[in-house]
Amino acid sequence: MLLDNSKLWTNCLKKSLVLWYLLRCQGIAAQLQIGARLEQGQFLAHAWVEYQGFVVGDYQEVPQHYTPLDRLNTELNRYISLL
To answer: Which of 77, 76, 80 is CA-nearest to residue 35?
Structure first.
């Protein structure tokens, strides 16, 4: 049985880290974003790269579906206060 190495690099965090690093090496001040959300009681996370407010290498709608971790603490406190 052969190991399919292509699946090792399908992780959004790995792809985003590589893209972010390559852009930064070219002097492009991109930001690595890591976000999370709850969907039907399940914790989901995603990583993507942004440059000047635009998503690079992913769907432009990604930030609408995930709360960036730097804002996550505020969002979780608001959610918990509703319980």
So the answer is: 76
